[in-house]
Amino acid sequence: ITELTLPSARFPLEMARDADAGINSVLTYQLTSNPFFSLASRDNPGGKKQPELVLDRVLDREKQSFFELLLTAVDGGDPSRSGTVQIRVNVTDANDNSPVFSQSVYEARVAENLPAGSLVLRVRATDADTGSNGRGFYFFGNVPDDIREYFSVDSETGEVRTAGPLDFEKTSKYSFALEARDGGGLTGHCEMQIDIMDENDNAPEITILSLSSPVPEDAPAGTVVVLLKVRDRDSGENGQVSCQLSGEAPLSIVASPGGSYKVLVLVKGLDREEAAFHELVLRAIDGGDPARTGTGQLRVTVLDANDNAPVFSEAEYTVHVPEDVPVGSVLITVTATDADEGQYGHVKYS
């Protein structure tokens, strides 16, 4: 009997036979007490009673899959005689149960550098029905197309795996629905929440926002020469950056309050006559393990200032001149040089 059979349905049973005659062959039937079934009878054209099994309550195969009843036929003799037969009622399955996931929400944390095909987690749904009605297959629910670019689900096993490279900096969390569908078309649903864990896969980036070059050599200490932006797209310690400066220039790095900007300032005066330019290497190091490094190069040119006086080649010149030397004669040629350049280094004599 299918479990969807409605109450009051009747099922004819085999009639008993009695070889006696008359009252000794008149039969009545009795059924063991059961809340789901009762016994009824109807008269056959020959005058004999046909026993029938009557369903009194709705069946549920998932609660009870079979019933064992005892049918007794009693004749009208004195003393009476009886015969019995066992009736086994098998309740056949109907697809009246949907698949049910073991969890309504599945959560997982995976690293962003997992290779494609890596196992994220395994979902499981059960169905109280039997056969194809109780076998579930797994599918994506109504999800955006990009979910299928990053994840796949095995319809047989319920394994959720990566389908493409994950990037924490692009998306740090995915939420989508999975569906279990049985052979009869009934479905169950669950929610997937996958958190992507940051890996130190990005090196710090150094961007020069402004550069004051050339810098006058008489610029005072504290003058801002370079404004930098330092960024690391990772998060947490992986995104915390410290900066170092290498080179001979009298410059120092100062962090701005926001943390993402740095300035290079003069710590003492420049001297173009000692160095006309300075080559600098900036190094940004993050807090990952192992750490990643970003570098940048700068060339700061020093602008000349008139900070040097002309210097004669000799501190004192001595010339011996005859008293009859003609007017206009060259007595001596003196030379003076100036360490400055351009107009500051051009010397005139008087």
Structure description:
The protein is mainly beta and 350 residues long. The protein folds into 4 domains: 9-90, Cadherins (Immunoglobulin-like, Sandwich), CATH 2.60.40; 100-197, Immunoglobulin-like; 205-303, Sandwich (Immunoglobulin-like); 308-349, no CATH class. It is 2% helix and 42% strand. It contains 1 helix and 25 strands. It has one helix spanning 145-150, and strands at residues 10-12, 27-31, 37-43, 49-55, 66-75, 82-90, 100-101, 105-111, 119-122, 125-126, 136-140, 151-153, 159-162, 173-182, 187-197, 205-211, 215-216, 224-231, 241-246, 251-255, 261-266, 277-286, 293-303, 311-312, 336-337. A hairpin with a 4-residue loop joins strand 14 (173-182) and strand 15. The relative contact order is 0.10. This is PCDGE protein. Residues 16-101, 102-206, 207-312, 313-350 form the Cadherin domain. It is found in: Cell membrane.
